[in-house]
Amino acid sequence: MTVKELKAELNKYPENMDVFIAERKTDYTFGLLNSVTKREVTFSEDPDYVTELNAKDDVLILDEE
Prior knowledge:
By secondary structure, the protein is mostly beta strands. The chain has one helix spanning 3-10; strands at 19-21, 35-43, 55-63.
């Protein structure tokens, strides 16, 4: 993805939206950005979300897929 393409994608979303980077899919040190998606994520101290749900929010995910 080029800078121009990234700017065009980011302009579709509110300026105050949090941005996260997705988990790497390859073993290389660097990977090309290929997608920007909005996703609802759950934030919790417990990885299984059994004991306590801290928060949910819509965020942008930058991904190499």
